[in-house]
From TrEMBL:
<dbReference type="InterPro" id="IPR012914">
    <property type="entry name" value="PucR_dom"/>
</dbReference>
<feature type="domain" description="PucR C-terminal helix-turn-helix">
    <location>
        <begin position="462"/>
        <end position="520"/>
    </location>
</feature>
<dbReference type="InterPro" id="IPR025736">
    <property type="entry name" value="PucR_C-HTH_dom"/>
</dbReference>
<dbReference type="Pfam" id="PF13556">
    <property type="entry name" value="HTH_30"/>
</dbReference>
<feature type="domain" description="Purine catabolism PurC-like">
    <location>
        <begin position="36"/>
        <end position="136"/>
    </location>
</feature>
<dbReference type="InterPro" id="IPR042070">
    <property type="entry name" value="PucR_C-HTH_sf"/>
</dbReference>
<protein>
    <submittedName>
        <fullName>PucR family transcriptional regulator</fullName>
    </submittedName>
</protein>
<dbReference type="InterPro" id="IPR051448">
    <property type="entry name" value="CdaR-like_regulators"/>
</dbReference>
<dbReference type="Pfam" id="PF07905">
    <property type="entry name" value="PucR"/>
</dbReference>
């Protein structure tokens, strides 16, 4: 179906010159003018014989003059050149010279100056009043405005009818593309391309290289800000228009349009109506997704409760099979304003990669079950600026244990910049290293206070000696070599430490307890 081309907002100069009864004659051949000079829009027609009428003119106007300003003795070729230069600098669409009022014919010097600056020059015969030219231009403007309003109403009606079709959103966007003659793309909450019309917009022979990449980059940037916004980008051969969809902090996506010509007021009105329809459709989809989300949460609780077969059966009817065992559990705790956007992103990934992942909201967080092929999804979650904890692989019967592992990994991840922490990293570091990262630090400092206080008061190194001695498995000789002292000095310091702590450091229990205290206070690095 061919595009429904909208009428121009203003009449082109060519149409005004062709109006019967005006008898306007072009003195500057079109072939000698810049390309498209006769297609420039004419906003209004103004008449003046002032040497410098530019303070009373605007761009895209047609100026009519009888040439009275050219009758003085000071009129030279340079005067004509300066006069035309001022008009060209303002951006007028055309200059009309009325003959047989002040002089016969049009001055050759004026014709030459207009040709030099690329301004169309027409001769207005004596029998054509200036007011007739102005009135004709006004009639053309009114005619086009009526046609434009008619087109706008027809376009909005066609789009509204498209919205009633089974796939109303796609039909609406397709109709918008047809009406405007622009490509139209919808990006989902993650910034990925959801759909585009016409479907070969970025692959056909007429596609502009880089248009998709530029639009996708800008859409992702707008979504990351999490605020409603619009943007117009001049991308070389195309003008891109982007508008977020949805409410503040609950953005549903970005609508992008691209075309060779910028959208005018009428086109923008049509786009505004589509934004309202698309936003409503996405909100409706979101309400449905929220209801499905509650069902997802129920299935997760069923899995955690051991009702694996029941959860599998329900999921198979709604979303397809669960991810194949063994699965890893990932836990993320997004800020409240990003929770909806994250779940919408996951819903899209479920549709794309059915059978590879399952997710559910639990409180203010999100739990994801993934098979071995869905690993790249975790990087996408980090792209949302999230901390993610991941469990070891586990069967569904052990899902509660895997969830506990993921939550412990999430706690560790939240100690650093957004990123992924796997539980096997924690398990490799040992139990004492994990305990040292809890709230045991104050207890540990109190336990070691007798040594730290003694060192501060007497300038000794009992705490450092104890740490090195434990690192050397309680051997005095190796500890002395590390510290650079005699082994009897190490033995004496350890004995003094035992007295201050009230512990026999010859026992395993005492040594393990002191080592855990050193870990908790950060006096040693986790193994």
């Amino acid at each position: 179906m061919s595009p429904s081309v909208a009428p121009p907002l203003l009449p082109p100069l060519r149409r005004l010159l062709a109006q019967p009864g005006l008898d306007l004659r072009l003195l500057t051949p079109e072939s000698d003018l810049p390309a498209g000079a006769l297609d420039a829009p004419v906003d209004w027609v103004h008449s003046s014989d002032l040497p410098d009428p530019t303070p009373f003119l605007s761009a895209s106007q047609m100026l009519l003059t009888t040439g009275r300003q050219f009758t003085s003795d000071a009129t030279t070729d340079a005067f004509y050149t300066d006069y035309v230069d001022r008009l060209a600098g303002l951006g007028i669409a055309c200059l009309g010279f009325g003959t047989e009022v002040v002089r016969d014919g049009t001055p050759d010097a004026l014709v030459a100056a207009c040709l030099a600056r690329g301004i169309p020059l027409v001769e207005v015969p004596y029998g054509t009043p200036f007011i007739a030219v102005a009135r004709t231009a006004g009639d053309l403007v009114a005619e086009l405005r009526f046609a434009r309003d008619t087109w706008t109403l027809a376009a909005q009606r066609a789009i509204s009818l498209a919205a009633l079709r089974p796939d109303g959103l796609s039909a609406t966007l397709s109709e918008l593309s047809r009406q405007l003659g622009h490509w139209v793309a919808l990006f989902d909450p993650s910034g990925a391309l959801d759909r585009v019309f016409p479907r070969d917009a970025f692959t056909g022979a007429s596609a502009s290289p880089g248009s998709l990449d530029r639009a996708q980059h800008e859409a992702a940037r707008m979504l990351r800000r999490g605020q409603r916004a619009s943007l117009t980008v001049d991308d070389g051969d195309e003008t891109l228009n982007l508008q977020t969809l949805g409410r503040r902090d609950q953005l549903r996506g970005v609508l992008a349009l691209g075309g060779r010509t910028p959208l005018d007021l009428a086109g923008q009105e049509v786009v505004t109506s589509v934004i309202a329809l698309a936003g409503l459709a996405l909100e409706q989809n979101t309400a449905l997704a929220r209801a499905r989300g509650h069902l997802r949460s129920g299935l997760l609780h069923a899995l955690l409760g051991g009702q694996v077969e029941l959860a599998h059966t329900i999921s198979a009817e709604l979303w397809g099979a669960f991810p194949a065992e063994p699965v890893r559990v990932a836990v993320a705790d997004p800020p409240p304003e990003r929770l909806d956007a994250l779940t919408e992103f996951l819903e899209l990934r479920v549709e794309e990669r059915g059978g590879h992942l399952f997710y559910a909201r639990v409180g203010a967080g999100v739990v994801v079950c993934l098979d071995s092929d869905a690993g790249p999804l975790l990087d996408d979650l980090v792209g949302f600026g999230l901390h993610v904890g991941v469990s070891d692989p586990a069967p569904y019967r052990s899902l509660p244990r895997a969830l506990a592992q993921a939550r412990q990994a999430l706690e560790r991840a939240q100690e650093a910049e957004p990123g992924i922490v796997a539980f096997d990293l924690i398990s490799r570091q040992g139990v004492l290293a994990f305990l040292a990262r809890t709230d045991a630090s104050e207890v540990a400092r109190a336990a070691l206070a007798p040594l730290s206080d003694h060192d501060a008061a007497h300038g000794t190194a009992l705490l450092a000696t104890l740490r090195v001695w434990l690192e050397q498995n309680g051997q005095f000789g190796p500890a002395a070599e590390v510290l650079g002292v005699h082994r009897h000095t190490v033995r004496a310091r350890i004995g003094q430490a035992e007295q201050l702590l009230g512990r026999d450091l010859g026992t395993f229990h005492a040594r393990a307890d002191v080592w855990a205290a050193l870990l908790a206070t950060g006096d040693v690095l986790a193994p």
